[in-house]
Specification:
alpha+beta, Thiol Ester Dehydrase, Chain A, 10-stranded antiparallel sheet, 10 strands
Length: 272
């Protein structure tokens, strides 16, 4: 169990410059089993989660043992690869929940001219004993109904332990790469980083067309073990993508995504 979160609501992180280079994007997408060229010259917004993790670590707060609950990407404009961005963020809520303490953050990414490009919200659970209560600031943690109908399978993939470990080789949280650490927190094996699931959702969007703006919410419900077969499913309404989910090999939902809005340029027609 973890200690209470040591920083207060309203804490502002030091602004920083952020740059995701092409080589980093291609390497991590390859570790996920994703075609590295699926996003073309656009940034896979998942990578904005990495400097956020660095910011969270910088005040000396360990991530180990913290559970990723929720992520939201509100993209205001296209984001190219290899462009320097400016990031600022703060803690927006801390609330006692049934299993511990839920902490919520919000970060804004802008281009060098100050144009706002992407807002990223994140929430994590710090497991604590003797804590109860929920509601209010954590109402957003209520995920969509797991029994919703109308989902169709897009693909199946089997995670490979060496690739899951390679994805998280930076060591920010060794629960993704060290079997002993995973067992300490009650898992049978290391679990894939939640950001890997985000890659899969953004890959699915990119295959429908180049995304110029969107609002995507993701709830992480169950771990994805590093040797597990995953199934990605989607739900549409009149041809409009409304939701996606990743199902583990036990048939349980590992994560859910709700597509609140998306503006995408359609893919060009295939040559005749």
């Amino acid at each position: 169990m973890l200690d209470p979160y040591p920083l207060p609501v309203g804490y502002v992180y030091e602004a920083r410059a952020v740059a995701i280079d092409r080589a980093q994007q291609l390497a991590k997408l390859s570790a996920c089993g994703i075609d590295p060229e699926v996003h073309g010259d656009r940034l896979d917004l998942t990578f904005l989660g990495l400097p956020i993790l660095d910011a969270l670590l910088e005040p000396g707060v360990p991530l180990q043992g913290q559970v990723h609950l929720y992520q939201r990407f509100i993209q205001h404009a296209p984001v190219a690869m290899d462009v320097q961005l400016h990031m600022r963020g703060s803690i927006t809520a801390i609330e006692q929940v049934a299993k511990g303490e839920a902490v919520r953050w919000s970060f804004l990414f802008a281009d060098p001219e100050g144009r706002e490009l992407v807002t990223v919200d994140r929430a994590g659970l710090r497991p604590r004993s003797g804590v109860s209560g929920s509601g209010g600031a954590t109402d957003f943690l209520a995920a969509p109904d797991e029994d919703a109908l109308g989902f169709k399978e897009l693909w199946q993939r089997t995670l490979r332990p060496e690739e899951v470990a390679r994805y998280s080789s930076d060591g920010r949280n060794r629960i993704h790469s060290d079997p002993d650490i995973a067992r300490q927190f009650g898992f049978r094996a290391p679990i894939a980083a939640g950001l890997m699931a985000v890659h899969y959702y953004l890959e699915a969007l990119a295959r429908r067309g180049t995304v110029d703006s969107m609002d995507l919410e993701i709830w992480f419900k169950r771990p994805m073990f590093w040797d597990e077969r995953l199934t990605l499913q989607n739900q549409t309404d009149g041809g409009r993508l409304t939701a996606m989910r990743i199902v583990n090999q036990a048939g349980k939902i590992a994560s859910q995504a709700r597509v609140n809005a998306i503006i995408a340029a359609p893919l060009p027609p295939a040559p005749s």
